[in-house]
C-alpha cells in the first residue's frame, strides 16, 4: 500500500511537471487534434548515422520487416474476427464483465476487475514501458527512412492535452519524399516500427525468463478447483438433511455461508449458496463438488507440505499421495490469502480408482484461442503448470512484473499498429499492398476506406454487445 501511495504521488507530480513544461514551451508546441506536439532535433544525428552507414543490413532487414508486418496484420485481423465471433455467439461479455476494448492505462487491471489475469500495472511500469516502446518504434521508422533517402525533419514528444501523463514519441519525416519513394521502401519504413517492437519483445522475454529462473523458487502446487460433477437437478432429494422437490427448494434451504451437503441418488455432493444460485438451471443440470476431503476441509489452493514432505511440483504431490491408503490421515500445509494453514484430513477412496487414496482436487486448464496458442509456442511459459513460485524478496516480484509489462506492451503495440486501420501504420501498409497487387491507386484508396470503416464498425459492435450484456 505504501508503494501505491508513492506511485500515485509520482503520477500526480509527473502530470504537474508535464503541464508546467507544456506551458513554458507553449510557443514551440504544435496542436494536432487532441495532441500537443513538442518538436526537437534530439537523436537525428544518430538516426542519420545508422541509416546511412548500415545500408546493406537495413535492406536485408526490410524484407524481414515487411514479411513480419504481413504476419502481424493477418494475426491481428484473425484475433479481431475471433473476438467479434465470441462476443456475438457466446455469453463471454456477461462472464468477463470488462470492456472488450480496454485502454492500457496505469492501474487498468484493478479498474476493470482483471487482477486475476494481469499483474499490477503501476505508473512507474507505464511510463518506462511507453518510453521504451515509443522510442524504439519511432527511431526505427527514422532509421529505415534515412536508409531510403527520406529526410528526417524533427523528433519529439506528443502529449494528450487533456491528461499529459499519456504521451508518446514521434519522428517527423519529409512526407513528400516518403510519398515519392517506391512502394517497397514505404512499406519497409511503415513496418520497421513494429519490427523493432517485436525485437524488444523477444529481448525482454529472455531477460524475464532468466530473471524469473534466478529469483523465484517453486514452493508448492497450486490447484484451481475441487473435484466436481454435473448432476441432474431432478435427482437431488435433500439438502442439509432437508427434503426438497425443486430447485427453488434447494436455494431456500441452503445455508448462506459455509458448505451445503446435497443427496442425489446414492451419493452426496457439496455446494455453496453462491455456486448453487449462479447456475443456469434451465438446462436441468447443475455443477456441484464431490464430497471429497479437500472441499470439506476447505484447504488453501496452494499445497506446500504433506506430513513434513515438501511439495513443489505435480510429480512430488502425486508420489506422496500414492504412498497413502484410503482412510489414512495426513497433515497438509496450504497457503490461503498468503497465510499458512495446517489441516489434518482423512483421505477417501478415489471413486474412479479402487484402493487409491483421494484428496479431491482438480487442475483445470482453460481453453485458449488460436492466437494465444501461437503466442505460447513462440514464447513458452517460463513457469511450470500448476507450480506455485515464491520470490526470494519483494523486489524480485516488482521487477518480474515490470519486465513482463515491457514484454507485453511491446507485443500489443506491434499487433495493434499493423491493424489495417486508417490512422495506424497498418492502414497505409494495407493501402500500398492493394495498390501493388491491383495496379490501381483508385481501387486501393476505396479498399482502404472500406476496410477502415469495417474495422470501426466491428469495434462498435463489440462495445454495443458488451453494453447490452448489462441488461
Explained architecture:
The protein has 471 residues and is an alpha+beta fold. The chain folds into 3 domains: 2-217 and 387-468, no CATH class; 228-288, no CATH class; 292-362, Pdz3 Domain (Roll). Helix content is 51%, strand content 20%. The strands form 5 sheets. Strands 5, 13, 14, 15, 16 and 20 form a 6-stranded antiparallel β-sheet that branches. The chain has a 6-stranded antiparallel β-sheet with strand order 7-12-11-10-8-9. Strands 1-2-3-4 form a 4-stranded antiparallel β-sheet. A hairpin with a 2-residue loop joins β13 and β14.
Give structural attributes.
six-stranded antiparallel sheet; alpha+beta; 471 residues; elongated; Pdz3 Domain; 51% helix; 3 domains
What's the SSE blueprint?
Blueprint: H1 2-24, E1 29-32, E2 35-40, H2 44-53, H3 55-89, H4 92-96, H5 108-111, H6 123-147, E3 152-160, E4 167-173, H7 175-180, H8 183-215, E5 216-222, E6 225-226, E7 228-232, E8 236-239, E9 242-243, H9 247-253, E10 260-264, E11 267-271, H10 273-277, E12 285-290, H11 293-297, E13 302-306, E14 309-310, H12 314-322, E15 329-336, E16 339-346, E17 348-349, E18 357-358, E19 361-362, H13 370-378, E20 387-391, H14 394-417, H15 425-438, H16 441-468
Antiparallel strand pairs: 1-2, 2-3, 3-4, 5-13, 5-20, 6-19, 7-12, 8-9, 8-10, 10-11, 11-12, 13-14, 13-15, 15-16, 17-18
Helix pairs in contact: 2-6, 3-8, 3-14, 3-16, 6-8, 6-14, 8-14, 8-15, 15-16
